[in-house]
Structures are given as structure tokens and as C-alpha cells.
Amino acid sequence: MDADVIVIGAGLAGLRSARHLEQAGLAVVVVEAADAVGGRVRTDVVDGFRCDRGFQVLNPAYPAVARWIDVAALQLQDFGVGAIVRTGATTTTLAHPLRHPRHALRTITSGLLPVPDLLALARWLGPTLLDARAATRATSDETLRASLDAAGLTGRLRRDVLDTFLAGVLADSSGDASANYVRLLLRSFALGAPGLPREGMQAMPEQLAAGLREPVRLGTAAREVRDVADGVEVTTDGGALRARAAVVAVGPQHVADLTPLRAPETHGLTTWWFRATGEPRTGPFLLLDASRPGGGPAGPVWNTAVISEAAPSYAPPGQHLVQATTLLGEPDGHAGEHEVRRDLARLYGTATARWEVLAHHVVHHTLPAQAPGPIRRGPIWTGERVLVTGDHRETASIQGALVAGEHAGAAVAARLAG
Ligand SMILES: Cc1cc2nc3c(=O)[nH]c(=O)nc-3n(C[C@H](O)[C@H](O)[C@H](O)COP(=O)(O)OP(=O)(O)OC[C@H]3O[C@@H](n4cnc5c(N)ncnc54)[C@H](O)[C@@H]3O)c2cc1C
């Protein structure tokens, strides 16, 4: 035997699973196909700029993050709690009135927060805000679109703010996601101030990996997993490995490569990273474009931000890093550099011709589609000793991936204990 358990995939789910198994006293080997740990949470350093592989943020209000990540060590740099909303020629900053009091009056009088919408939002989200179990243990669920319609949340807060913001968060503008899942996401945004680690998002999975006794075997793809008489055999690029059990934590698009399960549906997005000239000043807020009549952006960019305003460590001193997100499910999701640059000129009201593209990440499988239904499905056994996990078995998020890993580790430890 090479180990008690082989964990395949060193994303957040695989790493959390390995940590749990080691804490249970088991010998664990983690194999990872890529050249570093992190899976969908990776950071490229380009000319001194930190470009995450797809714009994302870490929310310290996620219970799993608070429990298993040393957030203080990551030195989070906070985004503003709010957003800048562009509607046609008008730009409005909506911000948390207590955290950003200087924007309070403008926020209240913006016209983007009609009282009937606010009351409907309070009814729709209130129970989950008070207790997450209102969503996780709900016996019924429906699509986000149907649920917001039924709640009467149909005005500008919905059309110009929520729908546009959520499309970027879900990598999907259809409104078909689970309403309960979105309630949980909004709860986290309401309770925490998301931010970016000083060294980039990849610092989070690296912290998990650093706590493992046995280093992750990088550049080692698993090709086959099968039950054998006394456990499992995993064929890898580095040879065959034997263990008493295996955890398959490979991300939704690869599940079918190694197991009889069908690959879950996913949604994708792209992130453009620019070195911006001039001084695009939006403060530490995400800028949402809701300029299309009826909601959504007038161009390919759904949201953008001057990342270095919120996270100075993401750019060399005195320089500006801008991200722009397009959605692959939209007709213009693959818009080229020229169109994105033109769109950003409109959104920031400044010339962007000299902005330099640092990176363009096309992330086809950003998130598993979270259709209405039970929020927590749990890991699934596909063999006597083979367990499949990942964010697609929980909620499509950092929180979901960590919890999925924890549950898988606990289930395998229990089975091996007899
Ligand atoms: C652009 C983007 C933005 C996001 N924004 C947010 C956000 O703001 N907030 C939030 O909460 N979540 C966000 N997420 C989601 C979050 O990052 C994921 O839910 C989470 O990282 C998934 O972790 P995972 O371990 O389940 O899967 P993955 O990260 O996909 O890990 C799977 C790992 O398995 C490896 N692997 C695959 N096949 C094999 C094989 N055959 N052998 C060995 N290894 C293999 C892969 O290389 C990978 O490292 C975002 C994701 C992306 C991509």
C-alpha cells in the first residue's frame, strides 16, 4: 500500500479532505494534474501584477473559511461594501451607509432602491439573513427568477442592481439558479466584507497544502481509479498507486473521466486584466453595467473594477490593475480585446487605447450550475472505496468546496474505521 487514502485533485475540496484525513491519523497521498495546487483558485503574476485566473473574491463570512482558513495570515484587502451602478449616462455609488457614510445620502436618493423593492427583499432574504438554515433546510426551492417575481421584487433594485450583480457572481444571467443557494450567497455578502489576499487568491489553497504532512504530488494526473480486493488502485502519470480508499475531487468537468457519473453542467466567464494608464478612480467598488433597457449591460462587460484600489498589492506601486468580466453564456461572451477596451472606455469615461492587456483568462467551467433542489447533496460513493466530492456536491462556491472536502474526509475516515 502507498497510503491509506489517495486524494485526486488539489483544489479546495481535495485539500480540505486531505487535511481532515490526516487529522484522523491516516496516511494520505494527494495527486494533482496541474503544476500547482488551487484548482480554480490560481494566481498568475504578470510584470508584478497579480492576476487571478478569473476574478474572484474571498468572503471571510463564509463559515468554512472562518473555521479552516487562517484569514489573518492572508492579509485580506477589502472591497467596498456596495457597488457602482452604471445606467446609461448615470453612475451611482450604492454603499453600505454605516461602512461608507459619505455615500449614504446619494445611496438613499439614487432611485435604485425603491421602497417596495426593499420591503420585498427583506421578506425574501430576511429569514436566511437571520439563520442560514432557512435556506439549507428549506423543503422547497425554485428558480431565482420565479422566486424574486413571486416576492414582488420587480423594480430597479432587481433589474439594475441584483440581476446584474448576480449574473457576474453566478457566471450566468438566466435566473435559473436555485433561489435558496442565492439567498445563502447574499447572506455571506451581507455579513462579510469580501477581499483579496495580499499574495493573491492562490495563497488560500497554498495555506491548506502547507499544512499537509506529505507534499502534494504535482504534475501527476490520475488516469483510472478502480476497486481492487483490498482497496483501490489509481493509475497515474507517475505510475500505479494503491490505497485503502480514494477521494475523487477533480472539478465538475473531469468527474466523468474517472467515474461513471455524468459531468455536471457548468457556467463560464472570462476575465480581462489590464494595466490601466491615467487614473481610473472608482474607489474599492465593483462597477456594474445595467445600461441595457430592461437590465444587463450595454456591451460585453458585466462588471469591472480597479482591483488595485481595493487591493494595492495586486499592482506595482503607482500602477493600476483593472479587471473586466464577460459571460460565456452571452452572445458577446467571447468579445475581443477591441470591443472590451471600447466598452471600458464608455464605463470609465476615459481613453483606454493605451491600456495594456496583461492576461485574458477564459474559464469555461467557472461554476457548476446550481439548479433548484437540495442545497447539500453530500459526497457520493461510486465504488466500494471511491468517493466523489467537490463544489458540485455542495454549493458552487469556496464555502461549498471546503465543506464538500470536509464531508468527504469524514465519510472516508468513518468507512476505513469500519
Ligand atoms: C473565475 C472564478 C470566479 C469564482 N468566484 C468565486 C467567488 O467570488 N466566491 C466563491 O465563493 N467562489 C468563487 N468561485 C468558485 C470557487 O473557486 C470554486 O467553487 C472552488 O474553488 C472549487 O474547488 P474544487 O476543489 O471543488 O474544484 P477545483 O478547484 O476545480 O479543483 C479540482 C482539481 O482537480 C485537478 N484535477 C482534475 N483532473 C485531475 C486528474 N485526472 N488527476 C489529478 N488532478 C486532477 C484539477 O487540476 C484541480 O486542481 C469562482 C471560480 C472561478 C473559476
Question: How is this structure best described in words?
Answer:
This is FAD-dependent oxidoreductase. It comes from Agrococcus sediminis. Pfam families: Amino_oxidase. The protein has about 425 residues and is α+β, with helices and mostly antiparallel strands. The chain folds into 2 domains: about 5-40 and about 200-265 and about 370-415, FAD/NAD(P)-binding domain (3-Layer(bba) Sandwich), CATH 3.50.50.60; about 45-195 and about 265-370, Alpha-Beta Complex (Polyamine Oxidase, Chain A, domain 2), CATH 3.90.660.50. The chain is about 30% helix and about 25% strand. It contains 14 helices and 18 strands. It has helices at about 10-25, 65-70, 70-75, 105-110, 115-130, 135, 145-150, 155-170, 180-190, 205-210, 255-260, 305-310, 335-350, 400-415; strands spanning about 5-10, 30, 45, 50, 75-80, 80-85, 90-95, 195, 220-230, 230-235, 240-250, 265-275, 285-290, 305, 320-325, 355-370, 380, 385-390. Strands 1, 2, 9, 10, 11, 17 and 18 form a 7-stranded mixed β-sheet that branches. Strands 7-6-13-14-15-12-16 form a 7-stranded mixed β-sheet, with helices on both faces. It has a two-stranded antiparallel sheet with strand order 3-4. Helix 1 (about 10-25) runs parallel beside helix 14 and helix 5 (about 115-130) crosses helix 9. The model has no long low-confidence stretch (mean pLDDT about 95). The structure holds flavin-adenine dinucleotide. The site of flavin-adenine dinucleotide has 37 residues, from helix 1, helix 11, strand 16 and helix 14.
